[in-house]
Amino acid sequence: MRFCRFGDGRLGLVEGSDVRDVTGALDVLPAYKYPLPAYDVFIANIDRVAERARAIAPTSALIASAGMQFLSPVANPSKVIGAPVNYQKHLDEVRSNAEIHHGSEAHMAPIHKMGLFLKASSSLVGPGEGIALRKLDRRNDHEVELAVIIGKRCSNVPASEAMKYVAGYAIGLDITIRGPEERSLRKSADSYAVLGPWLVTADEIPNPGDLNLKITVNGEERQNSNTKYMILGVQQLIEFASAFYTLNPGDVIVTGTPEGVSPIEPGDVIVATIEKIGSMEVKVRAA
Fold it and tell me: Are 131 and 194 in contact (CB under 8 A)?
């Protein structure tokens, strides 16, 4: 199944080029009182919502997806986890380009040594909300990545068990301000984590380790690779992350970007595509 969010937080079931408005399926969510759960309640109950969505879909409004302003399919992740330099060719380009590494040994270390990083959950937007660039006196780069959405609470998960905890996948854009500061600061500005255009449930992508992904900017191809070139695959990243953090429903792991990162500027139009997920168009503006 493919779930999207649009409008004022409505829930959609994607059917080809159309969307069924199945917002009514959210009625199966439990009622919560303060303090609210520190996780995404839709993702935590996605199986129940999916069952109800299937039941009401035939009588639900059908809307053309063309021009629809998609929100992030995950509204409330407790964490957005990044995987730096998780493609060898990207690590090579980081090491060879001072505009990217800024002389920092930490920025040039392989993922096994560098570890993971966190992006502020407040940086998360959907493709329809666009990217609002800050620090325009610096280089701001695009990075297309496969995003993994955690479906169940877990900790210390071995790689052999990791796929049991995946709710689904989406396209991720990890936007980066280049500079000497720590990664999390430079990658956590508002709108610097784009997720969409929808969530594809895990059953539709049995092998996330072999997906073509690419990005164009104003029609010019900038990145084109395959997730099989990741240094740490989805299973290994879940093992790595869950050894340090408890992962909650709705937590997002962006799995790293291939070579070809390059600057973006206000006025640019990005189209990011991942096989078996789809494409999303994202407009760039100044904050």
Answer: yes
